[in-house]
Amino acid sequence: MLAIIHGSLKLLFFLIFLPYIVLLLYIIGKKIDKKSKAPNLIIEVTNVRTNKELHLLLKEKLKFPEYYGENWDAFWETITGIVELPNKIEFVGWSEFARRLPEDSLILKEYLLEHNQEFPEWKCDILFN
Q1: For the structural domain made of 38-128, what CATH number should be given?
Q2: Dist CA 17 CA 25 (whole Å)
Q3: Which of 1, 23, 68, 91 is most solvent-facing, going by the fewest CB within 10 Å?
Q4: What's the rounded Cα separation, in Å, for the pair 82 and 73?
Q5: What whole-number distance in Å separates Cα of residue 8 and Cα of residue 86?
Q6: Distance between CA 70 and CA 8 in Å, rounded?
Q7: CA distance 104 to 49
């Protein structure tokens, strides 16, 4: 009889406290993820001459998956659901890049700014130098 009561108390303990333990582990995991997030990233775009070069550079620097589609739809899907952007991205050589690839520079800028508006908890400071 004592064994049954003891077993019931264990079960009751786990039923009551297990959700809190799971929640605590989730919160700890999120904090670890935030700490592991790269604090800043510099992307040199001065010598980028084509859309293909740009997407390959973004894929490398932002650690996109191997299957990244190297187009703007894939870029948006990747930054909003597959990878987490660093705390800060600084684009070096932006003026020259924007003159050379005006449409791509505009799309890139718009997507990054839209990302910050739609996902403020994953905000990434962006500098276009």
Answers
A1: 3.30.370.10
A2: 12
A3: 1
A4: 13
A5: 48
A6: 57
A7: 11
φ, ψ at 34 (rounded to 5°): -65, -40
Q: What tokens appear for 9 in the block?
A: 């108390």
Residue 90 CA from chain centroid, whole number = 16
Identify whether the C-beta of residue 58 lies closer than 8 Å to the C-beta of residue 76.
Answer: no
pTM: 0.70
What lies within 8 Å, CB to CB, of 104 at 6+ separation is 51, 54
Scanning the structure block, which residue is given the tokens 């993820």?
Answer: 33
Q: How many CB atoms lie within 10 A of CB 78?
A: 20
30-84: per-residue pLDDT in tens? 545 554 556 799 999 999 999 999 999 999 999 999 999 999 999 999 999 999 9
**79 contacts 118 by C-beta, under 8 angstroms:** no
